[in-house]
Amino acid sequence: MLIQFLVLFSAAISCQASLDSIGFDEWSSKSGNLQQQESEAASASAGACKATFAQGTLDLSPLDSADKPRFKNFAKVQIMGISYNLSFNPCSPFDCGVIATDSICATGNLMTYGMGEQNSSRIEGQPPSSLRLRYKGSSQLPLKPILSTVRLVCNATEDGRISNVVLTDGGNYNLTFDLHSRYCCLTPSPSGGNTGWSPGDVIVLLFCLSVALYILVSMLINGLVRRRSGADLLPNGQFWCHLALLIKDGFEFSFKTIRSCLCKGRENYSKI
Length: 272
Ligand SMILES: *[C@@H]1O[C@H](CO)[C@@H](O)[C@H](O)[C@H]1NC(C)=O
Ligand SMILES: *[C@@H]1O[C@H](CO)[C@@H](O)[C@H](O)[C@H]1NC(C)=O
Ligand SMILES: *[C@@H]1O[C@H](CO)[C@@H](O)[C@H](O)[C@H]1NC(C)=O
Ligand SMILES: *[C@@H]1O[C@H](CO)[C@@H](O)[C@H](O)[C@H]1NC(C)=O
What we know:
Radius of gyration: 34 Å
CATH topology of the largest domain: Cation-dependent Mannose-6-phosphate Receptor, Chain A
Subcellular location: Preautophagosomal structure membrane
Oligomer: single chain
Bound molecules: 2-acetamido-2-deoxy-beta-D-glucopyranose
CATH class of the largest domain: Mainly Beta
GO cellular component, one term: phagophore assembly site membrane
Structural class: alpha+beta
Low-confidence stretches: 5-9, 17-46, 267-272
CATH superfamily of the largest domain: Mannose-6-phosphate receptor binding domain
Helix content: 25-40%
Largest sheet: 5 strands, mixed
Keywords: Membrane, Protein transport, Signal, Transmembrane, Transmembrane helix, Transport
Pfam families: ATG27 (PF09451)
Distance between the termini: 52 Å
Strand order of the largest sheet: 7-8-9-11-10
Mean pLDDT: 76
Membrane topology: Single-pass type I membrane protein
Number of helices: 4
């Protein structure tokens, strides 16, 4: 029985070795690095309204409303003395008259301004408390760039509310407002970074477990049903016997080589 356990044990060791040699460890740490790179990129720029940070994930998409603004006419602002209604959709542009590329629009009786082009959208700031969405407006008409900043305020009890709307007219038109929502809160990442198991690890583990199970069950069947003993207990006993002989030959060869080297050394030593 001892021999069989030794075989199982060495199978486990070789499985562990194959895990290392095939490079699954490297592979999993690489995918970990990839995640990290993604999060850095996402914090600097995100065309969509999702970002991953070390502290968790930001996902504003439940706040979005396809093709129409989720927040319609939420405030009035004055541009060159004329009053405009603001509308906002956090993740996708909507049709606000002649303009259909912006996620923030200022709509008046005669004019419409694109206040935040969706493809210019960036998630910025230091999580968790000072995250912002930034946009450049598509409209060139005020003859100054339009910059919009949406401060993301995490409030677990609110679906979506906008406050503190301010438009300043200086070197640029700067529009800022606060978006209060549970979706402005970071969701902790499910796996704690690199400690998680990669799919490759799981596959190799399952493979090794099934090999071990196969050997164990075969041994049980061979022993209990076919009433065999010794090396015949093992599945494909012939094959394992050959393998054992090969290994024995290999060891003998290297042992002889090492011994001949050592003895030669000793001869030389005694001559001196
Ligand atoms: C602005 O919004 C108000 C109420 O939300 C609405 O009555 C008004 O017609 C809107 N004006 C324009 C130009 O869309
Ligand atoms: C966004 O798209 C418009 C055309 O739809 C293009 O003119 C503009 O350069 C794009 N901006 C960015 C930042 O990609
Ligand atoms: C969250 O929203 C509720 C309801 O609007 C408000 O009463 C509360 O003060 C807010 N909490 C924070 C931390 O802003
Ligand atoms: C508008 O925002 C930009 C960038 O944040 C800033 O450099 C500029 O001073 C702001 N202008 C005004 C008038 O607030």
